[in-house]
Specification:
By secondary structure, this protein is mostly helical. Helices cover 84% and strands 0% of the residues. It contains 19 helices and no strands.
Length: 412
């Protein structure tokens, strides 16, 4: 096999050299005529040269060739072939006793396995790499820490948060020996630990770690930086998961103020944050505040999304709900109708999302004593619910009651 590849390498390299020489002679002899033919021949020469280079690399640097081919196969979604090339590279590095390159290849394989959602296998591979790095470069080396972080992240992806926290904590101890305690590298590990604690439902401890990361990021990057926004956002979500909505709103508000300075025109994240805050105020029964933040979300979404985007319709529906709660049903109907126009152009006609907005519109019409109009919308919502939901679903029963109520009001 190797002899054949060496011959192929020499042959293709030789052919490419001869072709280039012939092209130069042709160019001078014909004074630059037949340019298209010359270009085609040059492309062929380059392809032959590339093939020869690959064969040459395979013979003289097989490990590097195999890892390159593994990455190419992985990028093309040929998972099995990527692993086969990786295994060949491991065998080669074993033969050559190149320990660090073998560990590098194992790390690559672990990443492939993670992408394929085979996290348990990835853990085993990362652990092998970590052991080799430790033997070759020492337990405190950067590559050992990187492998440890990969192990922890894999455990986190599996949902084994206790193991992830254990790994991140070990990594943190090593990092503190090398980095200042105010270094962003330390902050990143605090965030990982906080995420795993949140996964366990230990929100109070998670918030404490997020706040440690926040303090470091503020010191390192200043008050107005995307990393600071990310920490504030994480703290807000942790408070919300814990049921402390007012604290969540406080931190979302702090994040939003920084985002206004960083992104004056607004962006998708800001729109999402305003929507979250609007929904939180709605749950707190402060419908005026809810409408205020949903209006801010709508303003940003109209700038960053296409006018027919379903996200705009969601916000219009939320505005309708807030105004309906304030007994401003005429205003609510306007928002609902605008949402329906977008939904009818952007989602399936039998979607329960569409049905919910039809139902909301019907309720506002009913409160305005527009019973015939309400009946029309309740009936449309009920038709969709009957198509998409189980027959004993409560939404069907509610819609049926509303339909009967409206019929009695209009004398049917």
């Amino acid at each position: 096999m190797h002899t054949y590849l060496m011959k192929m390498a020499l042959m293709t390299l030789g052919l490419s050299i001869l072709l280039f020489a012939a092209l130069i002679m042709m160019f001078y002899q014909r004074g630059g005529r037949n340019l298209l033919r010359i270009i085609v021949l040059m492309i062929i020469a380059l392809m032959l040269s590339a093939a020869g280079t690959c064969a040459w690399q395979y013979f003289y640097d097989r490990g590097r060739f195999m890892t390159t081919m593994a990455r190419v196969a992985h990028d093309l979604d040929f998972s099995e072939q990527a692993m086969e090339f990786s295994e060949d590279a491991l065998d080669y590095f074993d033969e050559q006793k190149e320990k660090v390159k073998k560990a590098d290849t194992l790390m690559m394989m672990g990443d492939f396995l993670e992408d394929a959602e085979r996290s348990i296998e990835a853990v085993e591979v990362y652990e092998q790499a970590k052991e080799i790095y430790s033997d070759a470069e020492g337990a405190a080396s950067l590559k050992v820490r990187q492998a440890s972080d990969r192990v922890a992240a894999a455990w986190e992806n599996i949902g084994n948060y206790e193991e992830a926290i254990e790994q991140y904590t070990k990594s943190l101890k090593s990092l503190k020996k090398v980095y200042r305690r105010t270094d962003p590298v330390i902050a990143r590990t605090y965030v990982h630990i906080a995420q795993s604690l949140s996964g366990l439902g230990k929100y109070e401890k998670a918030i404490a770690y997020y706040k440690k990361a926040l303090a470091i990021h503020k010191k390192s990057f200043g008050e107005e930086h995307p990393e600071v926004v990310s920490d504030l956002d994480a703290i807000a979500h942790a408070y919300a998961d814990r049921g402390h909505i007012k604290s969540a709103l406080k931190y979302h508000g702090m994040a939003l103020e920084i985002e206004k300075k960083l992104y004056p025109e607004g962006n998708e994240n800001m729109a999402s944050r305003c929507s979250i805050m609007g929904s939180a105020w709605y749950r707190q029964k402060n419908y005026k505040k809810a409408a205020e933040y949903h209006e801010k979300a709508l303003e940003i979404k109209k700038r960053v999304f296409d006018t027919k985007h379903p996200s705009i319709a969601i916000t219009l529906n939320n505005l309708g709900l807030a105004h309906a709660r304030m007994n401003e049903n005429e205003e609510a109907v306007k928002y609902y109708e605008s949402a329906l126009v977008i939904y009818r152009k952007s989602i399936e006609p039998d979607s329960t999302v569409l049905a919910d907005t039809l139902n909301n519109t019907a309720i506002s019409h009913y409160k305005l004593r527009e019973y015939a109009r309400a009946l029309e919308y309740f009936q449309m919502a009920l038709d969709i619910y009957r198509q998409k939901l189980d027959k004993d679903h409560p939404d069907i029963a509610d819609a049926e009651k509303w339909v009967e109520e409206c019929k009695s009001r209009v004398g049917q």
